[in-house]
């Protein structure tokens, strides 16, 4: 059985006041950390075009982290790593090379690849260079699958920002982009990173080295990123977190976009354009036809493709605005100044419909960009595009429920949350439920459970569930706001040891329209009505890349446990007296407790409490005395105690075992001391002839008490033996 848990208003106010007071004390007591001390404070917000995919590739010759910059090529480099068996080379230096591997300064080397993609969708070298497919550079094969010198990172996200005119963009002269291979995402920082090198021509501040970390190129001072003296030719960069001594020069990128030609080549009233500045090889294909050829090892040059007019320009962008202007040098192949001419030159003019020199409206197209950095010098990238998606798909909302549990692993299905559609001013609860899907007809709620997740090193387990990714909002929804309440489901009774999240949230999804673009805006509010998260999506922006996130925080702390360790004393030769012998309980050489025996021979140590799982080894020893006639027991008894977290009970549980010496039963013997001569004692009559009295039996202890049945049985057996011995002596 579950109950919905809400926090009381007064409790929240008290908690807020307490937190505010603690914060004020901390501000006085501790030095303040300056804003921006971490490079991560300077990561900018990016956006993911819904129909654009970016694949990243890292290449190498010797190994992935070996230096890839040198003034001259190393011996045998043509038969190492990614170069093995291929004509298109990755090089330390272009000195001594020619043709497709030669440095061409500012001029692209045209004709390296054929005018159409191969049957698998990859560029292929022109016949004069052997006609080899470049699939080995851009497909999913890597070193583990037989392609030496290559690592593949598919579907990389986070490179592009979105401006107010609907253009996605990245510019290495303004931002530094660092790709994280583990997460498959870019982090884009708010200023350029790599400095220009005086050793290289066609070089400027703001280089594109995506496989290098921000910590390699930046320091932080006064809340701002400060560029270190790192250039494309720096060779002393090795650190504990950066094994490579130089920047990572050899890499590739494939960008695939699905485009819908509409409204005369515009979207949102803006011309549909595809602009790029970069080096080295850059080839742009549309529907498998080469429309922009900027191959070769060269300095930064630019491409501008207009789907509004159909114009294609490969040129030197002297003023840096991405637009070709009269007087700027052009490098187009002959008779390929428009999209239609490019298709005609490839023999594909009849493969699509035309409207003048550009594509006809209501036609779909695929744009593929292939980018290589093959040298060890400058690396540049600037992109700007607004390729329109198919208007038919409706925009989607997205919400991610995140569950964190401190102190234990998350068990599959153990935690649940509920979303309840509610009526707003413009949409009914039934309409909201229809968009959500999976709502129980009786309760009007949708319950979701969290999958299993293990704790990380910080002791926190994190699980998540994505919702609303299938909810589409179309033209009929414009002007409506759909509202959902989000709560954690709390079992009744609450499992022992667990603390649940008392927060409740409200998610509002508003649908608007601007021209042909339908937008979905999500706002997440807390119980006080304050907006704590917000995101907007269109049918051109994939909401799943940046969902609104609700985090429910839970904690687990098991109930403590304890154990009582006991021993027994048996004395032969006379009756045992209370407090006659002393015993110590030790751990790691430290005395934890000292106790004496009871009259029945039992020895009980103070209870040991545990609030953490762990392993413990204890020693129980007798403290030697100095009573005449008593022989003391020097045995050392060991007890191993294992404290484990029984999550099913919400409690720590202590279990124990004895060492090789067995149960801690100490045997002492008493012999009447012989008096000194002339003391007048009648030695024949002084021996009592009594054995030790049988120790009284103890009850079986409670859980966590290590007085064991084994010890009790031993004590009972010793008691019986003592009784028999006493009867024999009395005869």
From TrEMBL:
UniProt keywords, alphabetically: Membrane, Signal, Transmembrane, Transmembrane helix
Bilayer-crossing regions: 706-726
Region listing for Disordered, in residue ranges: 672-703
The keyword Plastid belongs to this UniProt entry's keyword annotation: no
Superkingdom per UniProt: Bacteria
Low complexity biased stretches: 684-697
Keyword Acyltransferase on entry: no
PA14 domain sequence ranges: 199-399
Signal peptide annotation: 1-29
Protein name (database record): PA14 domain-containing protein
Species assigned in the record: Thermophilibacter provencensis
